[in-house]
Amino acid sequence: MDRRHFLKNASTLGVLSPRLLSESWPLQAPGSTQPGTNRADAPNTGTGEIDLSSAVVVAPAALSKRERKAIQVLVEEIERRTAIRLPISETWPALPSPKIVVGSRDALHSLGSLPQDIAAIARPAEPEGYTLRVSSATTPTVAVVGTDKRGVLFGVGGLLRNLRMTYNQIRLSDRLDLTTHPKYPLRGHQLGYRPKTNSYDGWTVEMWDQYIRDLAIFGTNAIELIPPRSDDEPNSPHFWLPPKQMMVEMSRICDVYGLDVWIWYPAMDKDYSDPKTVEFALDEWGQIFEALPRIDAVFVPGGDPGHTEPKVLLALLEKQNRNLRRYHPQATTWISPQGFNPEWMDQFFEILQHEQPAWLAGVVFGPQSYLDLPAFRKRLPKQYPIRFYPDITHSLECQFPVPDWDAAFAYTEGREVINPRPGSYANILRLYLPHTIGFISYSEGCNDDVNKFVCSGLAWDPDVRVLDLLTEYSRYFISDQFAGEFAQGLLALEQNWRAPVISNEGIITTLRQFQAMEDAASPHDLLKWRIQQGLFRAYYDAYVQSRLLKETALERQAMGRLEEVRRLGVNPVPLHIGAAAGISTNELNVNAVLDEAEGILDQASRSLTNPDWRTRILELGEALYQSIRMQLAVERYKAEAVNRGGVLDTLDAPITNIPWLMRRIREIRALPSENDRIGAVVDLLNRTNPGAGGFYDDLGNEARQPHLIRGPGSGKDPEFRASALDGFTYPDAVGDSIPFAWKNWAESLYDEPLEMYYPNLDREIQYRIRVVYAGDSMNKRIRLTATKDIEIHGYIQKPWPIKPLEFDIPQEATSSGDLRLEWRREPGLGGNGRGCQVAEVWLMIKQNVADGAPS
């Protein structure tokens, strides 16, 4: 294709930034040989590397179909990155060309001409293991020796990840000598072809084949599918095939590569104690079991979706297990007690302890488990293995939320944003996997792509350095040129979320690093969806930060202007000033100030912050739809919902008090008298003021919660079972009707308390508490107690619409000079664990309240 024509098309898709289009691209790719060079005569680089650009792939004739598929993967993926198609030979070539020999140890020995150091390779003892070795012989020879068929495939993946591939050149370290096998036998990912996902429903059979291959190259050995009927719409505007047909194709693809096929099969019908419902389910599931060419296991969640009592659910699954084995005799059945309340959890473990059903292969630990994993393992009979089911795709309202996430990101980037969290998931896998046989992750799209590869790598080798995993990922999927830079960029994107947005100076540094790669990358590299994802996040983070800085400054400026009303209420402006302005004194004293404050706030919407960055985000959003079908907006790209990855729809979502302040200013201006207006403005200015000797905490703002007991934190407690967690409502749930502080909160999960501690209080004074209960679970009741289990209020319904509540603190609760407050939701509810959610707390001296402190 003509290069100028390519650039024109790339610009249309938003792949290249305007400054890149102005540059002239070199015709020769970095690292390539000049036209006419004979690669067979090219010398070694002299840098401890061998040149495999003219190598022959030696594959013994005795290899199985799946081992030959591994050979195909090797040849095709090298050609994709270098334009070199390596020839394949079933016998040892007579010419002294470099060789890559691939197969099991026994198959390679049938060749008879192996170099001594390769012939001496022992058979790897562990399943799925492999050896990679570069021979010290004169002719460069590389061996890929697998323990078994999967070992050959994973060995090919290991070689591909170690190759240095550029246009027309293939290099490899001459010191490579590696024998390895996976620590955990199960390493998989759920890939559901359904409308709810933020990209998968737009994938073709070819795209699925490539993605499953990519995962296998990094050690994944299982893929979990989702049946046509789940907690979702039956159709998607993005479907290329009907769901059942695509499910069959995906099962076939996995079988070709030799990967296990699992099915996540929710039991969603209303009453499985009804024989007719059971008969219907057996027929429906049986049709899927019969249609799929390969099934190795079926996992049925106890909830989300589904809500069936354990004894009834287990009876159904025993029948479904027989149903499954009619078509797949070796397949197994698994269950999770997801969403069970304590009563059902007890029933579940009691059945397993006393009846110990032999048909049940194991139990899954995933989101919405009332027990933590160690307690779960302790109660489960030893013969049942545990499969870990980590949610790697969501950022909030999930199993592993982003710790201490800033509300500005929560309201713009949302629940399913592009979310590389390599450090977090490495920590999570190292904490959880020792209790399990491995994992299959929960995923809703390719937004979590980096997390998938980190999890697969950690389950293979828990001691591997995360940076090494990311460097292999970046070298293989981006380019050898940017392997180190892109790996560091992924780590930097995670750090973008680690501190309050407004003070995180690393965010702009991260953007500059990605822009440097963007400037230096070839057009070919910029078409790769994984670099587009990195660029999208870097620009998005920086744009949100720039908005927050600007809008926070405007909010402070407007509030400073409103401070004039406090003084005007005491010392009215002289008449001659009003006359000079041509308006009445009353208008000058209040309405003019209100107008000025509103004008200041209105600047947030009148002029965009960094419009070039915003334009680039929209370009990259288009590019990601074209390249990998990411649906980043509801109307334009037909995302199922804003919270299903529609982050372009929330790019300009409110992240400060500005919309609420403008609403309040309009309401105050409409009040009937000047005194009313002055009083309302003063109340607005004093909204968070607890009065003399009092204390105020904004529990959704990490910088303003000095009395909140945070707990052990995400490093030790990534599910926040014993730690305070930040929670957020959806931006459109309450609009501009409430202060921003009421849209986010601190919460505790399940039956754990949310705690605050106040030291050094006055023993002689009685205190009063004002509290705002917010949250996404307003139907859950909440209770407040103080030191020594003194009840401040019993279980009450949170008020709707949201409003502050006030209660006296009995003096005995502060008689020691300290005060500990504990909130709890109703016990024993199970489900997602949420409900104990507190947005703001004022601790005030009661006499100050009586004397007219702000209300």
Largest sheet: 8 strands, parallel
Determine the structural class based on helices, strands and strand pairing.
alpha/beta
Strand arrangement in the largest pleated sheet: 16-15-14-13-12-11-10-17
C-alpha Rg (nearest Å): 31 Å
> Between the first and last Cα atoms, what is the distance in angstroms?
70 Å
Give the overall average pLDDT: 90
Helices, by number, come to: 28
Shape: globular
Beta-sheet strand percentage?
Answer: 15-25%
Question: Which regions are unreliable across 5 or more consecutive residues at pLDDT < 50?
Answer: 1-46, 571-586
Structure description:
The model is unreliable at 1-46 and 571-586 (pLDDT under 50). The chain is globular. The strands form five sheets. The chain has an eight-stranded parallel beta sheet. The chain has a six-stranded mixed beta sheet with strand order 3-2-4-6-5-9. Strand 13, helix 10 and strand 14 (332-336) form a beta-alpha-beta unit. The protein contains 28 helices and 27 strands. Helix 3 runs parallel beside helix 6. It has 855 residues and is of the alpha/beta class.
Which SSEs are present, and which pair or pack?
Elements: H1 3-12, H2 18-21, E1 49-51, E2 56-58, H3 65-82, E3 88-89, E4 99-104, H4 105-109, H5 116-119, E5 130-134, E6 141-146, H6 149-162, E7 164-166, E8 169-173, E9 177-180, E10 186-190, H7 205-217, E11 222-225, H8 243-257, E12 260-264, H9 275-291, E13 297-301, H10 310-327, E14 332-336, H11 342-354, E15 360-365, H12 373-379, E16 386-388, H13 407-412, H14 422-432, E17 438-441, H15 449-460, H16 466-477, H17 483-496, H18 506-520, H19 523-526, H20 529-568, H21 575-581, H22 585-606, H23 611-628, H24 634-637, H25 658-669, H26 674-685, E18 695-698, E19 725-728, H27 731-734, E20 744-748, E21 754-758, E22 767-773, E23 781-786, E24 790-797, E25 804-809, E26 819-825, E27 836-845, H28 846-850
Parallel strand pairs: 2-3, 2-4, 4-6, 10-11, 10-17, 11-12, 12-13, 13-14, 14-15, 15-16
Antiparallel strand pairs: 1-8, 5-6, 5-9, 7-8, 18-27, 19-20, 20-27, 21-26, 22-25, 22-27, 23-24, 23-26
